Amino acid sequence: MWYAVIRFPLVFQCRMHKRRVDMLTRVLKPLNRQHYQLVCRQLLFELAETLSTMRDLKQEIHDELSNENSKTTIHYARKANQLAKRAVNAFDDFLATFARTPSQSTKVRKFAEDEIRPVMLAHFYSARLHSRIITVNSNDQIRNLSRALGSYRSAVSVVENHLQHHPRSSIQNAEELSIARDMCNLLPIKLSRLARGEPVGTIK
């Protein structure tokens, strides 16, 4: 019965994106990320975006079923969270292709003008994914929002470092940068309230 209440386009879109994820994963698997660095970067970013879209669709189904069978709701919450973590891992793999050494943080290296936006977006989208993980207790929410805060700070940090060397870069006008800066100010307040046991609104 629960399946009937889900809008068919959502289910169809999930299946379509699942096929794309499978295809991207198959293409990426045999590629040497050092020898085919640019191709791998493009594929990893696309994989992360597709997984993020699937997460959003699972979240939408979860929300539509919020008043239905609890087991079904839990199922879609679990699926959404799994996809969020996979997307974060894909963004991490994307960022790892920019590090000069395995231990070097992307925050301390310089990026070309055509690299800075996707690097900033990878941090930004990772932050959003962390903040949207469905949780049932405040400890998990604090942990996820703390990770989100770290990613937002990384997004701001890489851009500010870039602007020191390229003060006229158009990245300074990016909407995502403005949002990231706002979240760097907002999330510590949210985390403090959560730590005190006070209710807080949903973080988008």
TrEMBL record:
GO cellular component, one term: cytoskeleton
Swiss-Prot/TrEMBL keywords: Cytoplasm, Cytoskeleton
InterPro entries from the UniProt entry: KBP
Protein's recorded name: KIF-binding protein
Localization: Cytoplasm, Cytoskeleton
Species of provenance: Fasciolopsis buskii
Family recorded in the similarity comment: Belongs to the KIF-binding protein family.
Membrane-spanning segments: none
Leader sequence residues: none
Keyword Hydrolase annotated: no
